[in-house]
Amino acid sequence: MAIIQADPNKERIDRVITRWIKRHLNRLSAEVNLEQLNSLIEDKDMLAENLENLVKKERLQGIEQGIQQGIQQGIQQGIQQGIQQGIQQGYQKAQAEVEAAEKRMIRTVINMLQAGLSDDQVVAIADITPEELKAIKAQQSQH
User: Fold this and answer.
1) Residue 3 to residue 74: CA distance in whole angstroms
2) What pLDDT score was predicted for residue 33?
3) Which residues contact 109 (CB under 8 A, 6 or more apart)?
4) How many other C-beta atoms lie within 10 A of the C-beta of residue 135?
5) How does DSSP assign the chain, residue by residue?
6) Which candidate in 3, 63, 71, 128 could, as Cys together with 132 as Cys, close a disulfide (CB 3.0–4.6 Å)?
7) Measured between alpha carbons, how far is 43 from 21 in angstroms, rounded to an integer?
C-alpha cells in the first residue's frame, strides 16, 4: 500500500488494481462481497476481512470434501470386503454341502450293497461309474 500511496498516479493505480482484484476473484467464483470495495488504500481492512473469510470458507469446503471422499472410499472398501467375504462364505458353504451330499451318496450306495443289490444295479441307480463304486467299496473295507 505504501508503494501505491507514494506514486503520483496513486488514484489510477488504486482503481486499476482494485478492479483487477474484483475481476480475478469473480473469475475464481469466489463468493466474496466486494461490491463496496472501491479503493485498496481506503478499504484495505474490508478487503482483508473478505479474503480472510474466503480462506476460512475454502478450508472448510476442503475439509468437507475430504470427509466426503473418505466416506466414499470407506464405503467402497466396505462393499468390496463384503463381496469378498460373501463369496468366500458362499464357496465354503457350497463346498460343505457338496461334501455332505457325497457322504449321503456313499451311505446310500453302501446301504444298497448291504441290501443285496448287484454292482450293476447300484451303478445304475446311484448314477456312478464302476470305478467310483470300486473306490467306495475300497474305502468301506478300510473302515
Assistant:
1) 52
2) 66
3) 122, 126, 128, 133, 136
4) 13
5) -HHHHHSTTHHHHHHHHHHHHHHHHHHTT-----TT---TTTSHHHHHHHHHHHHHHHHHHHHHHHHHHHHHHHHHHHHHHHHHHHHHHHHHHHHHHHHHHHHHHHHHHHHHHHTT--HHHHHHHHT--HHHHHHHHHHHHH-
6) 128
7) 13
The cell for 140 is 468301506
Cell numbers found for residue 125: 441307480
Residue with cell 488504500: 41
Given the C-alpha cell 470495495, which residue does it identify?
Answer: 37
